[in-house]
Design brief:
Blueprint (H helix, E strand, L loop, with lengths): L5 H9 L15 H16 L3 E4 L5 E5 L7 E7 L12 H14 L7 E7 L10 H9 L2
Parallel strand pairs: 3-4
Antiparallel strand pairs: 1-2, 2-4
Helix pairs in contact: 1-3
């Protein structure tokens, strides 16, 4: 899946929103679930093995056995009320596009792309991605 259609992905992700101006997608809502259902097959097509953890974080990982180092990249998938279409999603989809472009290459380190709720809105649900940073430092 080379030449990842980033603009198309962003436009589709923005469609999973409450009605009204801007993008309003809140954690653990129907719109949030629709987004995760859209993103999971994209992540798989880009060579990532995916799982949804108990905190609502969608995680995709490409494992390398050449090193125990892991690059974590991602962002939040929910938005502020009436946010922009890039709010959080650009960090996720840009990371995913990069992984897609690299899938034909043998990588020394593992890559993990994660999606988590914004910390200011849901501090407890963001604990797992915060903990990851400390476990792998």
């Amino acid at each position: 899946m080379n030449d990842a259609p980033l603009a198309e992905w962003l436009e589709t992700a923005a469609s999973f929103s409450l009605p009204g101006s801007g993008v309003s997608r809140f954690f653990l809502t129907a719109e949030h679930r629709q987004l995760l259902d859209y993103l999971r097959p994209l992540m798989t097509a880009c060579g990532l093995k995916t799982h949804l953890d108990h905190s609502g974080n969608l995680v995709g990982r490409r494992v390398s056995h050449a090193s125990d180092k892991v690059l974590y990249i991602g962002s939040h998938q929910d938005t502020v009320p009436n946010g922009g279409s890039f709010d959080g999603m650009l960090g996720i989809l840009l990371a995913l596009a990069a992984v897609c472009e690299l899938q034909d290459f043998i990588l020394r380190d593992s890559i993990t792309v994660f999606m988590r709720p914004a910390r200011h809105e849901h501090p407890l649900s963001a604990l797992s991605s915060t903990t990851i940073k400390f476990l792998h430092c």
